[in-house]
Amino acid sequence: MKTVDVVIIGAGPAGSVCGYLLQKAGKDCLLIDHASFPRDKICGGGLTPKAWQLLDQIYPGLEYAYNPITRVRTFIDDEFRCEFSINSPKRYIRIVKRRDFDHLLLQRYVGEGGAFLKGSFARFDEVGGDYPVVVTLRSGQQIACKYLVGADGATSRVRQQIAPDSPHGMLSFEQYQSRSEAAGDTITIAMSRDYVHGYFYHFPNQKEDVVGFCDLVATKQKTSDVCATIGYPLHDHERLHGAYIPRNSVVSPFKRVMLVGDAGGFPNRVSYEGLYYAFATGKNAAEAIISGRDFRQVNRVMYRKKRKEDFLDRVVYSGGGLAVLKALMHFPRVVQYLFNVFV
After folding, report:
1. Residues of the chain with pLDDT under 70
2. Which one of 45, 202, 208, 247 is most buried, counting C-beta atoms within 10 A?
3. Range of the domain at 40
4. Residue 82 belongs to domain with CATH number
5. φ, ψ of residue 95 in degrees (nearest 5)
6. Domain tally, the chain
7. Where are the extended beta strands (E) located within the chain?
8. Which of 55, 170, 158, 156 is nearest to 102 (CA)?
């Protein structure tokens, strides 16, 4: 049976960041994903300032393609409310195309000597000894490891084994709309009392426009209706993609099995931003393994953030919360200030 220090299931940003840092620290890793890369990924691709600044810390000098966003346009209850500029480049949002971005991070991991295997996770078992976790793939292949990191997204099979009743989360639908003109510098966000804890978004990356909608009762028809109402109708000739966004964190009870990124339910509960939390939790898992500390301790700040966000989610998406936001839209400078503070 093959043995390695760490098996990581899922080669998205959380898994690739974790593997990259472990390889740099001299740990022997095997990163496993069922997909061949590059592959498409349902995600608006927004790197908030805290996300790309953390990325710069993890990968000093990393060059990647992105579209800088300098303006934000908002709608509430199907009406245009305000538009404001992001005045400092340090606060710009960077929109990446996930197909290319995720592949780049995987390549950086492989460049550090990390091994990649195309395969599908089936289960893990604790067996004790020097390599106390045995990972079994659907092919029947088994790998013994010292640590297992589940980074396999919102429908994580690692999480399903740990917490079989854990829900996948809310549905998000997206369409990638081709365009002939240059990328715009504005993102559009729309919220409404008709949306259940969700919002509409339009994010232009360097290659296409990402038009999407998410809420707790999202359907293809509702997505189509919302997009048309806001002024970004879906294109008949382009496919509408769907994916889950997890809304519940799962803490692994096993010291040597960790859940990071979407697999651990870490996306922001209000904005549903996932990339920052993928980088942060992937980094924390690597730190826990390198130092021999418990991941739950290393990652405790992230768990506290989730509890705070659960409260904000109930406030922001309530009728009263939306009424306050609607009133604030009369003061774009106040909205701009709040945006800079919280994004």
Report:
1. 180
2. 45
3. 2-342
4. 3.50.50.60
5. -100, 120
6. 1
7. 2-9, 29-33, 46-47, 67-69, 71-76, 79-85, 93-95, 115-118, 121-126, 133-137, 142-150, 170-177, 186-191, 199-204, 209-215, 240-245, 257-259
8. 55
